[in-house]
Amino acid sequence: MAITAVFGGYVLNSLDNHYGIKGKVIAALKMLPEQTAQGIYYIDTKTQSWQDDLRNAVAQKKVELGRAIDQSVKDWLCRIACVRY
Length: 85
Known about the structure:
The chain is built from 3 helices and no strands. The chain is mostly helical.
């Protein structure tokens, strides 16, 4: 049980390091003025800037993944060519 908790904590911390969720939440809370009424707020995901940022992030991930796959294929093919000769 303890191992599962430690592993779960590790996974959540690595996800936070990758996406930076904790930093974004803290920055957003610091930007809120003190006069803001208390309550539950949500992010309007239908705004154009939100959609543009999301689209750009997805496009960047596609480029990074394509580069990684391209390099892996080149390394793999080099090993095959080196073994052949």
